Amino acid sequence: MNPIVNPIMAGLMRVDTLTDQVIAMDFLISTKTAIKLYAVAATESATPDLRTTFERHLFEAIELHGAATAYAMQKGYYHPYNVSEQLLLDQRNVQMAVSLPS
Question: Range of 44's domain?
């Protein structure tokens, strides 16, 4: 097994290596989650200084998500403007996941 891959994650994914596509798409999901959480934190912060801090992190997360999106699009992992192409890619990924040994 690839020593870089956490054994728990390998079991959950049923693979022993992470591909660039898996990492890129996971990173996109993670940055999107961070954006949502920073937005909530900024609106519910107790002090103006704290709100400013959360807003700064929010804007940084938005920029990071944009860069990650551009990377995934450039590599062909993500097609946000072409739904039919994205569906084909998703179907191929599902078929590959289903065909992995359990």
Answer: 7-99
CA distance 62 to 85: 25
- For residue 15, the model assigns a pLDDT of 54
- Give the pLDDT of residue 19: 85
Contacts of 33 (CB under 8 A, 6+ apart): none
Taking the whole predicted model, whether its pTM rises above 0.85 is answered as no
pLDDT at position 1 over 90: no
2 domain residue, yes or no: no
- Percentage helix, strand, coil for the chain under 3-state DSSP, each rounded to 5: 75, 0, 25
